[in-house]
Design brief:
The structure is a homotetramer. Chain A has about 450 residues and is an alpha/beta fold. Chain A has 13 helices and 15 strands. Chain A has two domains: about 30-225 and about 375-405, Rossmann fold, CATH 3.40.50; about 230-320 and about 330-370 and about 425-440, Phosphofructokinase domain (Rossmann fold). The N and C termini of chain A lie far apart (about 65 Å). In chain A, about 60% of the residues are buried. Chains A, B, C, D: One of its GO terms (molecular function) is 6-phosphofructokinase activity.
Chain lengths: ~450, ~450, ~450, ~450
């Protein structure tokens, strides 16, 4: 272990911008690789370009060169002495397939590859650091985590909401923890950044590394967030069930509400995977309910022509149809959404009744059964590799960063950048166009 | 085709009782088996005993011999001339895995084995016979049905509720239909019996054969009703999701409402299949909510000790906790149930709050996604064999009966018997005992 | 515990025959049921009839009354004192889905319901009792077995072949084991019977209870053996793959070899489940290869007409086509089968070449991937209930018996009866007829 | 349609290199978009950079600027008049999950979006263009393809091997086909390039667009080839079965041979997905069999310590252990591989026998059951989007190119570039390192 404090260092003299420069000062300890793996150690000045479309790149050159991320991977020299390193792991926010896989991957890599001896699991999110909640700490060893990836959920428990970063750093100090892995969403990542700040301000040598979790796939600089493929695959099964229901009754309408507060990725992918949706409604594309080209009448016509229809709606879609009022926010600080599924159910029922059209509507809201399933094979591999990259980053002294995946490469993304925006479905891009073509829904559901 | 009317004939001179004697007078046409299958043709006097426990059997002997069913299977002589036979198929009531498999099996067997030329599918349940609903009739051929078993639901559509049997027989007469297969629940079977009566009263030679559908597995004389295994397997996945949710939050409680109006088979089997339920509530076993031994407090204690718990409740359970009032009944004539899931959700929330115990309750009501999945391999085989048995029965002139399965044999069960009772979980039997032992729930949840 | 030796007692004065009378003398200890379960304790004179077809029954009456089995289930009084009982569990023979579920069910029921304290797992079949093999004994507790049902195979390991029953009883004596559960096939059950005999001859009070394992579903008095449904469901996936292969190439033939040494149940059910087989070959139905109506030419014609075909063959089928010679037998004492899959592959290739017919044959032999999958939901429930019944039987002092399932009831079947025959597909029964009808294959593939 | 011949045009004056410049001269026809989709039409000079690591990029700048691909997507103007366009589709080479999804996606997009009227499916690969094979052409309409994605394989059939491009172009001329989609591997893509050349030489206006198929994931410039995720997920099930087998017998060794002629991606991903492999052998990493650090002895030691082990071997691995001789090549022109699975089985058996170590080896070769399964949800979406991109490219007059996916963007890759190399697992990269860490296998299996 070094005698210098951990801090976020920006290497100002690099031609590339500061993206991915989130390290704990200079590496001191060479990694004693007992397994003699001749891996390609990552060169410290390598960068993965942020934008690789030529026109953008040319424009950037006038501004000081292209933006780039620090690639992930093992370093020739590491910062922390594994024999003395004490590690904490915490999972925060809502469930997502793959949480247990990430925990397992971290523990296996720390123990078997780096020979770290002590790993603590903090229970129920940031509450686990705060004594008054009374959640006991879990010792994490290979034996404990060996089979957890076969279960959905998280063996550590989780909770929403932030806790005082000072208290959390108190806990880290008390337990002599040098490395903290935070698996959570953007709110949790902001919390992680504050923890890193507080620790740095106190002169503590602590690496705080995030693994971004977002079942909605809406965190930028991550091709597909872990669990996303599992989630939309499971959601597709629900769409299939809705179609079976709709086809089996006169005037059958299946209405499926899926996750997606700010982005409609799950709705789009699930709809394409099964090809049974007739209308897909996402937050990125506003729609009218009323009028001859509004959803209600378009849906009614589809049912009259085809005998049935399936509507897939992301939970964040159509919020413009609620009276703007004080919705407040949940414990994670997310604005509370109004229930668009229930609204649609009511309005569809009214509209069909008003037109004298027979309706058999089945409303399916499968959220819990999607987010709590075990990871599929792809996500299993992905979570494992994310965990490996996170361990390499932390052991090399990086902090206040998350592991991203950019163009097929694992990269180090500063937390500030990772929480700076929201990844959205481009209403003019090819994903949404494929949805329009596959569903045959009108381009504009507007009056 | 015979010149005598179809009617239910009871062979009074048999020592066994009349169970299974539901045939259209005497068989006239030998089956011209072009495939020369040397099957074991069923002897007309064979019976499958209704009760095979010795003590019961001995008791019965004083009353005229043991009760028995007519075994299913091909007959050496058949009643209807396949070249002239016109067949109708209808599916009624709620969805159940395997409906399409049964339709497919009927059409394939009628066409390929018996060489029947015309098969009509009536759409949306009994509505399909009534012109004013405007549902067109579907021509069913091997090409049309070849792949339908890969879909859930029913390709014919379905609806609840009865229609005037006179009008239905009018339709059958108009279309010269001799054989009608009704796939539906007990209400639909009562309708089928009335159709058979009306047809007989008019002197029409029509065989009406039912294939009993009950996702709840509650029709007597059918070991497991088709779709039941698929349903409880899918329900088990939901219990697993509920457990993952419950384990992942402080004070986690998963509450899963499953099908089961009068019987708790799905709840019991799904709970045993996954072994993650802590409490199983079924209509056959009353329970108290309040008091130290009532559900609420027992659940709270379980959560305090184990950190989480899963409650599985059949929809028909706990109806005693609602004020008895005029609930009315649905279109199928079933008494409307009050929503025990919502009641439990409210009462659990109140109780935990009152005790100051942390609670994170997830309520999952997966009904549509269970009943609309495709049949699993076992149910696929079972539906196919049921369909074969139904075709054999109809072609041999049986009517006003359903295909049952009794002790591993397909049997002919008079509709009147099939709808005479409800198959229930025996609160003193080994299934319920296995549930008690596997869950560890108290034998009596009573104050 | 009694002071009288365990032995197989036949209650000669019962009107019913001796089936199921395999108990350790008189029960002495009332079951101290701390959970106060008001189950229906089974009456000692109840019997489940062996044959419930009336004609057979009447015939039997002249011979001393109908044959019956002792029903399974908990007894009001038990033979062994749970606090002093020491239990052994062993799995023998080939793998089968559900082995871990049975082990888990036994341990859970013994521990949680009967409060038995010591349960030993013997490793790798009967070798585990013999010191020179050096397999350590495993302590089985609820913690050890909690999640094993999620894995295929058996956590105890298994092996083929018998061991000296004297040595095995030596081991049981040395370890003071009173109850031994043997999970295995008919060879292993014969071994279990010999162990019971040796123990009885030595005056040891040992209950030896078998849970019959046969992936082929060929043990009599067991409706469906555990794992069978899982196995044929998995096998059906292979048939689907074979069909996809066959359809995708000119002259495509998919050839799938499935389990089934003496009986073709898996082949029949798997073929019906997926409906993609064109020929099903089972041990019960001989077939010719050559001649115009033999398999080879019939297959060639099918390929010419339909473009492709799938052949499903049980491993025990067609043995008549090998020169009768000294095949020897394997370690379990089973006669070695010649490889009918390879034979068919060669002969089909020759025949098509001789006729100048294009052939693209894909031969799939999936055995290991079928027998080693985890149990499906139905088998999971079934294994659990089998285990409960086995524990009830053993604690009540039954020995030299296996748990069977007869007409929906768990029953006690003497080992001698269980190994006395082989359950086979009836070539004149409705299962085979359904196969013929579903595949459209000729009734006789004979020259 | 234009009056100028189709040819591959290289826009020499662009600063970026010629990558992706494979178009039929100048676009003439504006797309009459009846659906008024305001998609982001792709600008003709956009390029997706080929290498986005900064150091590489800087180096390239001295050589004429960074290499880039033409992005995929709809063009503002198209080359072919949809009302007159006649399209051909052919699938070539081995099976791969998703073939039917691609066919379906092409037909749906051509018909519903571009309103193309005539689409022909050529059967059984390139044979379908040659009259003497006698394969009839299939008319492809939305009705025909609606459900084909639920089946594995290819509804068009496939075959290996090339056919005379002159004869193929004869066929295209005779049928007035303007657009040809070839779904196949690198051999088939070379064939497609020759077809494009011949057509251009004859002055025919034909766009030949490839959708690269490689279950091995070894075609460059395609992040993951379609079907790859489905394939490795299915392969992972086999590894699980092998582990269950290995764990269930003394000296248990599971040996699984997977696809991978030149690259070990499936072996690596499948091993990581299930985490049950102990040794992974791929073509990219040579290994010794003999010696203390060779595979055989390392495996034996693993079995002695852990009781069992699983070996996963890609079919192209270890070819150095066969005597170099004339192996010849198959109909596709691929060098014939020797069977490394059988070799390992023999050598492992010998080695264990020589050391007196007990061995129960199960060899599993699941190839057909992996490649013929239906696409999983991810691959379903991916195939649909690939098909959309291919249709956009063809309608815009691109030819002699394939649809690639580079850094999350669909791109146009010249066939010559797509077949110029083989995508391989980097033995020094993080995928292989994750495999080493997850399996714990020695870095070098060398004597």
């Amino acid at each position: 272990m070094t005698d210098r404090p951990a801090e976020t260092v920006v290497a100002a003299d690099l031609a590339v911008s500061a993206l991915g420069e989130c390290r704990v000062d200079s590496p001191l300890l060479p990694l004693l690789d007992t397994r003699q793996v001749s891996v390609n150690y990552v060169d410290e000045s390598d960068r993965v370009l942020l934008d690789d479309t030529l026109s953008t790149l040319v424009a950037r050159e006038g501004e000081g060169g292209p933006l780039g991320f620090e690639p992930g991977g093992p370093r020739r020299k590491i910062y922390f002495d594994p024999t003395k390193t004490r590690v904490g792991i915490v999972t925060c926010g809502g469930l997502c397939p793959g949480l247990n896989n990430v925990i397992r991957g971290l523990v296996m890599e720390l123990t078997l590859h780096y020979k770290v001896k002590r790993i603590f699991g903090f229970r129920n999110g940031y509450q686990g650091f705060i004594a008054r909640y009374g959640h006991p700490v879990v010792d994490l060893t290979p034996d404990v985590v060996r089979n957890i990836h076969e279960d959905g959920g998280t063996m550590l428990g989780t909770s929403r909401g932030s806790q005082d970063p000072e208290e959390i750093v108190d806990c880290l100090e008390r337990m002599n923890i040098n490395v903290l892995f935070v698996i959570g969403g953007d709110g949790s990542m902001r919390g992680a950044a504050r923890i890193a700040e507080v620790a740095a301000a106190r002169g503590e040598r602590v690496a705080v590394v995030g693994i971004p979790k977002t079942i909605d796939n809406d965190i930028p600089y991550i091709d597909h967030s872990f669990g996303f493929q599992t989630a939309f695959g499971t959601a597709g099964e629900t769409i299939l069930a809705a179609k079976s229901e709709a086809r089996s009754a006169p005037g059958g309408v299946g209405l499926v509400k899926l996750m997606g507060r700010h982005s409609g990725f799950i709705a789009c992918y699930a709809a394409l995977a099964r090809n049974h949706a007739d209308f897909v409604l996402i937050p990125e594309v506003p729609f009218d309910l009323d009028g001859p080209d509004g959803l209600l009448e378009q849906l009614r016509r589809r049912v009259e022509v085809a005998g049935n229809a399936v509507v897939v709606v992301a939970e964040g879609a159509g919020q413009e149809h609620f009276p703007s009022s004080e919705n407040g926010s949940d414990a994670s600080g997310n604005a509370k959404l109004r229930d668009v599924g229930v609204l649609l159910k009511e309005r569809i029922t009214e509209h069909f009744a008003g037109c004298g059209t027979e309706l058999n509507l089945r409303y399916i809201d499968p959220s819990y059964t999607i987010r709590s399933v075990p990871a599929n094979p792809y996500d299993s591999v992905y979570c494992l590799r994310l965990a490996h990259a996170a361990v390499h980053a932390a052991m090399a002294g990086r902090t206040a960063m998350v592991i991203g995946r950019w163009h097929g490469r694992f990269v180090h993304v500063p937390i500030t950048l990772a929480v700076s925006g929201t990844n959205k479905v481009d209403p003019h891009g090819d994903l949404w166009m494929s949805v329009l073509e596959a569903t045959g829904q009108p381009v504009r559901l507007t009056a």
